[in-house]
Amino acid sequence: MGRVSKAQAQENRQHVVATASRMFREKGAAVSIADLMKAVGLTHGAFYKQFASKEDLVDKAIAHAFEDPAAHSSAAHEEHAGEHEAARQALIEDYLSIWHRDHAGDGCPVSGFAADLARDPDQAARSQQVYVNGVRNRAARLATGEDDGLVQLCTMVGALVLARATRGNPLSEELLQAARTSLIENGSRQSDTAVAQ
Description:
Radius of gyration: 19 Å
Number of strands: 0
Shape: elongated
Order of helices and strands: HHHHHHHHHHH
Oligomer: single chain
Distance between the termini: 72 Å
Helix content: over 70%
Number of helices: 11
């Protein structure tokens, strides 16, 4: 078999990173290199021509997830550009949806990588700045008045993780609905208070 061109090698690398980002959010970073490369359609040996280690790939997969414009939740925000409260509500509805619960691989990297980073302090230390920036950026999309959006993001991520863990039980949808209702009602109250002042 002939050598791969630099352009093809770069395309393969990007495909591996994108696939890893999706698979790690869906199944965790414990996904094996063999399974990942099989999903991409490349050999196990090709991995080591592209990446120094699996940890290197995890770093790149996390960065990719936060940079990817197709990442879950950006569409809802862009659809209502200039209308912050409408964008915030659409983001909450989209984030706390059954679709997002059931499609972790295409979902938010905040919830998708949280457990892996919590379990592996070395990985967390390497990826922390990208992850922290991603958390802050997502919280800023939810900010209302004097609220920086962090509590809202914590509520959303927590509800989503719990809903995924209880999928198949009615509690799963109850968790999503309770968080949606609380966040939208609280945000509307804060907006009304800000207008009244």
